[in-house]
Amino acid sequence: MKIKEILSILEEMAPLAYAEDFDNVGLLVGNSEVEATGVLVCHDALESVIDEAIEKQCNLVVCFHPILFSGIKKITGKNYVERSVLKAIKNDIAIYAVHTALDNHQQGVNKIFCDALGLTNTKILIPKSNFIYKLVTYTIPENFQELRNALFDAGAGKIGNYEDCSFNSKGIGTYLGNENSHPQIGERFEFVEGEEIKIEVTFEKYLQSKILKALFKHHVYEEVAYEIYALQNTHQNIGLGMIGDLPQEMNELEFLQMVKQKLDCGGIRHTEFLENPIRKVAVLGGSGSFAISNAIQAGADVFLTADLKYHNFYEAENRIVLADIGHFESERFTKNYIVDYLTKKIPNFAIVLSQINTNPVKYL
């Protein structure tokens, strides 16, 4: 199969539209039209990982962190980013990054984090905003079922754990066509008044072009009447971080010892213990200091994340235990998840888990 076919499967796992605006996800290096020889899945696409891909005859490297993140004006091999990119290009290896596209997914990085700790009743900590749109259109009863089903097939009408959601109401529509019109019902210059059905469906905004294509293809009117609104609702199943419950409460020390063991942390920096039992746990893989207030507001007893600075620890305000467990450690099992997903989707293809530990942080 071609590399682009594998990329389509990866986008099913983590739609690129889910990524944060600041991020750089998707195909970063290489030609998607070439035949794939194998996939190497890693955390960071370092030069040593590219060497591993060459050795294992994989011409697609799927990484969690994008090796190309900010702008680059020269590729001379002077730093680790440029050396990786140069080696990949020289050896015809494509690099694809998922990063926050998988961070924001309901089954992604933070669900993997929660599952590793055995948390239950998990939900998104910071639901994504400005992501839900609404389509309103009108058609005749004879076209209603076909049109609505086409919109569902295009991805409209999904709300949480439910699909094919819509609201439909009957009314009277009117129109009068001019000399250039070709009305489906009635004649030019004839005032037409007839029964119509109003269809209302919501959809994720990145699906808009697909939704409109289905609308125009399956609507019987010459001029399609429709409206699209951006909703203020947050998307409860897409967003950063998660919060969940421990099956049984633990004291603070026991809990952090459990976290250290399950995630193989070299060390955990944390705020002062509050001598409260740990029941509700908030997590955010990677750098998560921006979510401290969200964790407090959600009623978490502890917030596990990484890259906390000195003054971030003060933000606990004796209301929560903050714990920096390490950036790599908080995302430790992400590459395993990607390998499992791809193996299930394309079982007869070489999907290889990188054996190189790319964590740059070491502990005494």
Sum up the structure in keywords.
metal-binding; alpha/beta; Alpha-Beta Plaits; globular; 6-stranded mixed sheet; single chain; Udp-n-acetylmuramoylalanyl-d-glutamate--2,6- Diaminopimelate Ligase, Chain: A, domain 1; 5-stranded mixed sheet; about 30% helix
Tell me what the structure shows.
The protein folds into three domains: 3-101 and 333-353, 3-Layer(aba) Sandwich (Udp-n-acetylmuramoylalanyl-d-glutamate--2,6- Diaminopimelate Ligase, Chain: A, domain 1); 109-127 and 240-325, Udp-n-acetylmuramoylalanyl-d-glutamate--2,6- Diaminopimelate Ligase, Chain: A, domain 1 (3-Layer(aba) Sandwich), CATH 3.40.1390.30; 132-233, 2-Layer Sandwich (Alpha-Beta Plaits), CATH 3.30.70. Helix 1 packs across helix 11 (334-345), helix 2 (47-55) packs parallel to helix 3 (80-90) and helix 6 (141-153) packs antiparallel against helix 7 (208-218). The strands form three sheets. A six-stranded mixed sheet has the order 5-10-12-13-14-11. Strand 12, helix 9 and strand 13 (302-306) form a beta-alpha-beta unit. Helices cover 28% and strands 29% of the residues. The chain has helices at residues 3-13, 47-55, 80-90, 100-103, 109-117, 141-153, 208-218, 252-262, 292-297, 327-330, 334-345, and strands at residues 26-29, 39-44, 60-65, 94-97, 120-128, 132-139, 167-176, 191-204, 226-230, 235-250, 269-270, 278-287, 302-306, 321-324, 351-353. The mean pLDDT is 96. The chain is globular and about 85 Å long. The protein contains eleven helices and 15 strands. The chain has 364 residues and is an alpha/beta fold. Belongs to the GTP cyclohydrolase I type 2/NIF3 family. Keywords: Metal-binding. Pfam families: DUF34_NIF3. This is GTP cyclohydrolase 1 type 2 homolog.
